[in-house]
């Protein structure tokens, strides 16, 4: 069991971010009921694994809301292979849509720039 400082050091995630994830319901710790003089929260290896899963998911473009939908089921291997593929396919479609949108914006900016360059002073 680790305290939040140890968890932060091991994962490289700031303490504030870990607290935010906990408030958001992405992870959870537990207090030691035998100790009533402090409110220390302890985290197990499962939390380290979940934090790494969250980092990896964010790195490939998933939002925290999307991660929250699947983190427990994915981590506990409750999602079938086809369900995991469906989650990833949905994200690929979103990324492709965003890329097409950005290409259209880029084209409009290039046209605007060209029009400005061709203006007569």
Architecture overview:
The protein has about 120 residues and is mainly α. It has two domains: about 1-60, Multidrug-efflux Transporter Regulator, Chain: A, Domain 2 (Orthogonal Bundle), CATH 1.10.1660; about 80-120. The protein is about 65% helix and about 5% strand. It is built from five helices and two strands, in the order ααββααα. Helix 3 (about 45-60) packs across helix 4. The chain is elongated. The chain starts with a helix and ends with a helix.
In short:
By secondary structure, the chain is mainly α. The chain has helices at residues 4-11, 15-23, 45-59, 64-75, 81-117, and strands at residues 30-31, 41-42.
Largest sheet: 2 strands, antiparallel
Q: Which range does the strand content fall in?
A: under 5%
According to DSSP, the number of beta strands is 2
CATH topology term of the largest domain: Multidrug-efflux Transporter Regulator, Chain: A, Domain 2
Spatial extent as radius of gyration: 22 Å
Report mean pLDDT, rounded to a whole number: 89
For the record, the CATH architecture of the largest domain stands as: Orthogonal Bundle
* Biggest sheet strand line-up: 1-2
Topology:
Layout: H1 4-11, H2 15-23, E1 30-31, E2 41-42, H3 45-59, H4 64-75, H5 81-117
Output the keywords.
5 helices, 2 domains, elongated, 121 residues, Multidrug-efflux Transporter Regulator, Chain: A, Domain 2, 3% strand, mainly alpha, two-stranded antiparallel ribbon
């Amino acid at each position: 069991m680790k305290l939040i400082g140890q968890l932060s050091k091991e994962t490289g995630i700031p303490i504030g971010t870990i607290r935010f994830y906990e408030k958001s319901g992405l992870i959870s710790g537990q207090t030691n009921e035998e100790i009533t003089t402090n409110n220390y929260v302890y985290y197990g290896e499962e939390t380290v694994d979940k934090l790494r899963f969250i980092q990896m998911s964010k790195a490939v473009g998933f939002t925290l809301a999307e991660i929250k939908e699947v983190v427990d089921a994915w981590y506990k291997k409750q999602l079938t292979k086809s369900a995991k593929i469906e989650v990833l396919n949905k994200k690929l479609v979103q990324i492709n849509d965003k890329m097409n949108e950005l290409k259209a914006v880029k084209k409009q900016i290039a046209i605007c720039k060209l029009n400005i360059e061709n203006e007569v002073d």
